[in-house]
Amino acid sequence: RKEVEQDPGPFNVPEGATVAFNCTYSNSASQSFFWYRQDCRKEPKLLMSVYSSGNEDGRFTAQLNRASQYISLLIRDSKLSDSATYLCVVNDNYGQNFVFGPGTRLSVLP
Amino acid sequence: DAGITQSPRHKVTETGTPVTLRCHQTENHRYMYWYRQDPGHGLRLIHYSYGVKDTDKGEVSDGYSVSRSKTEDFLLTLESATSSQTSVYFCAISENYEQYFGPGTRLTVT
Question: Labelling A84: which of A106, B18, B26, B39 has CA 20 to 30 A away?
Answer without folding.
Answer: B26
